[in-house]
Design a protein that fits this description.
The complex is a heterodimer of chains A (210) and B (248).
Chain A (H helix, E strand, L loop, with lengths): L1 H8 L1 H35 L4 H13 L2 H8 L10 H25 L3 H9 L4 H34 L9 H9 L3 H29 L3
Helix pairs in contact in A: 1-9, 2-5, 2-7, 3-5, 4-5, 5-7, 6-7, 7-9, 8-9
Chain B lengths: L4 E9 L11 E10 L4 E6 L5 H8 L7 E6 L2 E2 L5 H6 L1 E5 L10 H5 L1 H5 L4 H14 L4 H4 L9 H13 L5 E5 L7 H18 L2 E5 L3 H7 L2 E6 L2 E6 L1 H6 L3 H9 L1
Parallel strand pairs in B: 3-8, 3-9, 6-7, 7-8
Antiparallel strand pairs in B: 1-2, 1-4, 4-5, 9-10
Classes of the chains: A mainly alpha (210), B alpha/beta (248).
Chain lengths: 210, 248
């Protein structure tokens, strides 16, 4: 009840934070796809790079998010206080699932199908765009889904470095010991993650038609 | 007349790892020709180099020695993907594209070659009818809705799509049940005469080889140890050939 009254009184602010949150997640996931998809494809063409690249992405993934934000702040160009730094960190987190799933999805295509394609005279590009990516799309999209859901969660912490988003309410609530304020941030963030997971799951199933 | 396929001194050696290790030769000094309307059946045990020989012809593997000519043209001088569009290729696992319909599968090479859609559609209908599948019924289906025999028929139709002069078949009927296999062998035999193409057909089934081959070759440890007609094969004193005949 308190929560509803709070939203009633602060509708503008709450929608603003929700918008910032969506922006952080959307922009970072989109960037991660733009970088991760070609990178994953590259790994299927240069298997020797797979170990180092996935290893590095894994190391980034392991750094606690608050620590990563901390590391980024002093960096020139990428760092500082604000949304840009948060997006850089979120992209770093989103890369691993997208790169890995792109690699796995394409590599998982039936070798006989690949051999038939090559044997019939498909160029490498044709094989990729007509066969490998369409058949790997279900797995690739699963990576995008994981990246998005993780992004929604991590973006709440971005408030700590002044990037805005629903985390603002959570941090403010924790520092003032105000349960309503904490819930005002935590509840929509959790719902957002569930909705993103559900919707992207639907898209994923649409593509997985093997 | 220039033969469809000339293979001379063909060899393939896996790259070695150092001075002592010069690599393993999978195919050694293989020579044969295949004319229009001829089917060369390559027999041999697993690992004797039959499949490798096929892949050297369409350059899925690059020969390390020797020469292959397709209709008089050295294959080494062609772009591999251009070469492959002139050669039909059928493999045991078939490798139909699961996200394409039967019609799209069969029409793939013509599509890659930029044929107009109407011409592709007509060609697909013609080919499906040729391999005994009703175009209206099977064209719009996806491969998962086909039996093993039907899939292999589609595989053969797909290989014929752009009217290649040469067909390479790697145990095309190997994964089928015995009844379907015999049925397809019989139809394939009728088709061979009508098509007038050069064919190289790999199998380890001697009976299949004797039925379908105008020439038989036997591969052993990477070499072509016998090459002759079915009659010569039956009467040969070559110990490897005898072993195969006894196994049949």
């Amino acid at each position: 009840m308190n929560l509803l009254r709070f939203y009633g009184d602060h509708a503008r602010e709450a929608f603003g934070l929700l918008g910032q949150h969506l922006y952080l997640v959307g922009a970072s996931t989109l960037l991660a796809i733009l970088i991760g998809l070609p990178l994953g494809v590259l790994l299927t063409r240069r298997p020797a790079w797979r170990g180092p690249v996935l290893g590095l992405a894994n190391v980034f993934q392991t750094i606690p998010s608050l620590a990563l934000f901390g590391f980024l702040i002093p960096l020139p160009f990428l760092g500082g206080i604000g949304a840009r730094t948060a997006i850089v960190a979120l992209v770093v987190y989103a890369l691993l699932p997208i790169v890995r799933n792109t690699y796995v999805g394409i590599n998982g295509v039936d070798p006989a199908v690949r051999e038939a394609g090559r044997g019939m005279g498909m160029t490498d590009r044709q094989l990729l765009t007509m066969v490998e990516i369409p058949l790997g799309l279900g797995v690739i999209f699963a990576g995008v889904r994981v990246a998005t859901v993780v992004g929604v969660g991590t973006a709440t912490i971005a408030a700590a470095i002044g990037a805005g988003g629903l985390g603002v309410y959570i941090f403010r609530g924790v520092s003032t010991v105000d349960d309503t304020l904490i819930l005002a941030g935590a509840l929509p963030a959790a719902l957002l993650a569930l909705i993103a997971d559900g919707l992207l799951g639907l898209v994923e199933r649409r593509f997985a038609h093997r | 007349m220039t033969p469809v396929l000339e293979v001379r001194g063909l060899g393939y050696r896996l790259p070695g790892r150092g001075k002592r290790d010069t690599g393993n030769a999978l195919v050694r000094d293989v020579t044969f020709t295949v004319g229009a309307g001829e089917t060369l059946v390559l027999l041999g045990r697993s690992g004797s180099g039959k499949t490798t020989t096929l892949k050297l012809i369409n350059r899925l593997l690059e020969p390390t020695s020797g020469e292959v000519r397709l209709q008089g043209e050295a294959t080494a001088t062609l772009e591999p993907y251009r070469l492959r569009r002139r050669i039909g290729y059928v493999i045991q696992e078939i490798g139909l594209f699961p996200h394409f319909t039967v019609a799209q599968n069969v029409g793939l090479v013509p599509r890659l070659e930029g044929w107009p859609p109407a011409r592709i559609a007509a060609r697909v209908r013609e080919l499906l009818a040729l391999v005994g599948l009703d175009p209206a019924e099977f064209g719009p289906r996806y491969p998962r809705a086909l039996s093993g025999g039907q899939r292999q028929r589609v595989g053969v139709a797909r290989a014929l799509a752009a009217d290649p002069a040469l067909l390479l078949l790697d145990e095309p009927f190997g994964a089928l049940d015995p009844i379907t296999r015999v049925e397809l062998q019989r139809e394939f035999r009728a088709l061979e005469g009508r098509l007038g193409k050069g064919m190289v057909f790999v199998t380890h089934d001697v009976r299949e080889g004797l039925l379908l081959g105008t020439k038989l070759g036997l591969m052993h440890e990477g070499r072509l140890t016998f090459l002759g007609t079915a009659e010569e094969f039956r009467r040969s004193n070559d110990p490897q050939v005898k072993q195969f005949m006894e196994a049949a």
